[in-house]
Amino acid sequence: MRSAEGGTFREGFRGGGASGPKTVARSSVERAFLVGIEYRVRTPQAKAGKTSLSSEAQAARDSVRRAAAGSKAPSIPQFSAEESLAELRTLALSAGAEVTGEFLQHRDKPDPATLIGKGKLEEIAAAAASASADLLLFDHDLTASQQRNIEKVVSIRVIDRTQLILDIFARHARTREGQLQVELAQLEYLLPRLGGRGIEMSQLGGGIGTRGPGETQLETDRRKIYRRIRHVKEQIDNVRRIRAQQRRRRESVPVATVSLVGYTNAGKSTLFNALTQATVLASPKMFATLDPTIRAVTLPSKRKALLSDTVGFIRNLPHTLVSAFRATLEEVQRAALILHVSDASSPLSAEQDAQVERVLKELEADGKPRLRVMNKIDLLPPGQRDSLRDDATSVHVSAAKGIGMSTLLDRIDQMLSEDAIRRIRLRVPQKEGKTLAMLEARARIYSRAYKDGLVELEVGAPESVVRRVKEWVVGREA
C-alpha cells in the first residue's frame, strides 16, 4: 500500500516475506514494525529528474565500482534501500521477533529531531498501532535524542540497527569470553543514551553522605556503568593474555592458522564442519556463530593446520562490536592465511565482499594472504554452475553438499609456507619401525622399495619431519 508522498507501507510479513494474518502468541514473540530510510541528494542529474543515493555504504560501493571499472570487471550491484530493509527483516527474525509490517521512507536529508520527520512519524505510529506492534525497528542508527523523540510519538519501544545487532549477539553468546565482549559493547552503546530516560534517572541518591544537593541518579548510573566497563575491560584483557599465551604455544610448533571470514550467513560454519568434521552450529539465522572455535585439519601433504571459525561481518558493523571483539578477531590478525567465504548464490555477493574488506582493513588484516571461497554453488542454476572456473585466487565449493572440498584443501596446502614440504629420498633400516610409522602418518610416500634390510623411500615431508629423519636422507629433489 502506498503511503503519502515519500514512503511505502507493507504489512503482515511472516518469516521473510509472505503476507497474511498472524497466529503466534504475543506472550512468546515480540511483534516488530520495520522502518527503512533512503536519502536522496541533489546532483546535476537530479535536476534533470534523477536522484542519487547517499548512504554509509555508498563510499565503499563507489570505490569498489571504480576499481572494477579500472580492471574492466562488471559493475557491482548496489545495496538498495529495499535490500537493506530485507536484511533488517532477517536480523529481526534472527532476534526472535515477528515482523508485522514495514515502511520505507524516502527523504532528501535526515530530520535532526526524529530522523524521518514528525508528520511521517505519526503516520508510522498509526500503522504500527494497527498492526499491534510491540516495538519499532529502524534500519539506521539513532542518536539518544532522536530515540527519545520518536518514542514520545509512537508510544512503543524504539530500537535502532546497532541495538538490534547487539541483542542478537547477546542471544548467541555462549562462552564467558563472548558474553564479556557483548556486555562491553552494550555498555558502551548505553552510556551516551542514559540522559532523559525518565524521571527515575534524575532523582537524587539517598543514604548517609548523599543528602543535600548530592549527585543525581543519572550521575550515579553513569558512574556505575563506567566502573562496570573498567571491570569488563580488565576481564577481557585477561582473556587476551590467555589467548596470547595459547597462541605462543601454538606458534612454537610449526602449525599454521587459517581463519574463515565472511559476511554473516555466507556458510562459514558449514564449511568449517565440512573441513574439520566438527559439529559447530550451522544455522541460516544471522550471527549463529559468535564464540570462536579452532579445530585441526589434515592437509593432503599430511601437514596439520588449525582452522579458526569467526563471527560473521555485516554492512555497517557497529564500531563498538569491532572494538569489543578484538580479543576474538585477533585470530584473524595473526592468521597465516585468510579464507574469505562468499555466498556465490547471492545477487549481492560483490557488495557483501566489499563490506568484509572494510572490516578487514579496520582490523589491519587486509594485507594477509587470502583465498576467496565461493560457497553455495549448489544453489546456482546448472548452466551457471557448470561455467564456473577456479583460478589462482578463488575456489568454488558447496560446503553443504561436500563439493570442491579436496580442491580447497589442495589450494590451502599450496598457499601455506609454514613447515614447508620437501621432496627427499631416504634409506631407512627396516628395524626402525617407529620412524617408518611416523613417515607413513606424516609424509606423502611416492615410492617404496625393500633392499638389503633397508627401505628406500621417496617422500614429500614437512621440514619438521625431515629434521627427524635427516640421518637417513640420501638425496633431496626440492
Write the layout of secondary structure elements.
Elements: E1 7-11, E2 13-14, E3 18-19, E4 31-41, H1 44-47, E5 52-53, H2 58-70, H3 81-94, E6 98-107, H4 118-130, E7 135-138, H5 144-154, E8 157-159, H6 161-172, H7 176-190, H8 217-252, E9 256-262, H9 268-276, E10 293-298, E11 304-309, H10 319-324, H11 326-333, E12 337-343, H12 349-362, E13 370-375, H13 382-386, E14 394-396, H14 405-415, E15 421-429, H15 433-442, E16 444-451, E17 454-462, H16 463-468, E18 473-476
Parallel strand pairs: 4-6, 4-7, 7-8, 9-11, 9-12, 12-13, 13-14
Antiparallel strand pairs: 1-6, 2-3, 4-5, 10-11, 15-17, 15-18, 16-17
Helix pairs in contact: 3-6, 6-7, 7-8
Q: Characteristics of this structure?
A:
Rossmann fold; six-stranded mixed β-sheet; Alpha-Beta Plaits; disordered N terminus; 39% helix; 16 helices; 18 strands; single chain
Q: Name the average pLDDT.
A: 77
Q: What CATH first level of the largest domain would be assigned?
A: Alpha Beta
- Approximate shape: elongated
Q: Report how far the terminal alpha carbons are from each other.
A: 70 Å
Uncertain spans: 1-5, 11-27, 42-77, 196-212
Number of strands: 18
- Count of structural domains: 3
The biggest beta sheet is recorded as: 6 strands, mixed
